[in-house]
Write a structure and sequence with these properties.
The protein is mainly β and about 190 residues long. The chain has strands spanning about 1-5, 10-15, 20-30, 35-45, 50-55, 60, 65-75, 80-85, 90-95, 100, 110-115, 120-125, 130-135, 150-155, 160-165, 170-175, 180-185. Helices cover about 0% and strands about 55% of the residues.
Length: about 190
């Protein structure tokens, strides 16, 4: 058992008999009344995102989880086929259970979160930074701005992202998958 003082991003716990994962949380101590924790949690069975408030000190049942490295092989509609890097066992996950799936390309390694006691996959996470090629973007016009300006671009995986004006088609860029933002151009 844990309390709200143990909350952290990524913590998995049981709530009403279902597994949930904390996406974000904020401790709030109002001037009047008891403290509480405002959270965004994701249901690991359905993928649904929910905002929930816990009173400070409430006890939760923490789930033991473990991360395993898998390689993304291919997708068929909403089904994504993954392979364990150690024993070559294959696993199929639905698109809704892979966070930031729009940045996932074939051959990429991802972390799959497993329920340690039951051995079932709960969710998957794309690496925090990926390198993708730009397949489409409008040409940037030099001198049309005085400060940092961006333009929309499409990556090889189909994800849409804003990039600086000097980025052209065929350039490889590094992307922060959590913020869904451009980091740098790769030469």
């Amino acid at each position: 058992m844990a309390t709200t003082a143990d909350f952290r991003n990524g913590l998995c716990f049981n709530l009403n008999g279902e597994p949930w994962k904390i996406v974000s949380f904020l401790h709030v101590k109002p001037g009047k009344g008891p403290a509480f924790v405002r959270t965004k949690i994701r249901n690991l069975n359905t993928g649904r995102l929910l905002e929930n408030t816990f009173t400070s000190g409430v006890k939760i049942d923490v789930i033991r989880v473990e991360n395993r490295k898998y390689q993304f092989l291919y997708s068929e509609g909403n089904d994504y086929h993954l392979m364990n890097n150690e024993d070559y066992e294959q696993l199929m996950m639905q698109k809704d259970f892979i966070e930031n799936v729009e940045f996932l390309k074939e051959g990429e390694n991802i972390e799959v979160l497993f329920h340690a006691d039951k051995g079932i996959p709960l969710s998957a996470q794309v690496p925090s930074h990926v390198v993708l090629e730009i397949t489409f973007t409008e040409p940037g016009v030099k001198g049309n701005t005085a400060t940092n300006a961006t333009k929309p671009a499409t990556t090889e995986t189909g994800a849409k992202i804003n990039v600086p004006l000097f980025i052209n088609e065929g350039d490889k860029i590094k992307i922060d998958t959590a913020k869904k933002s451009y980091i740098e151009r790769i030469k």
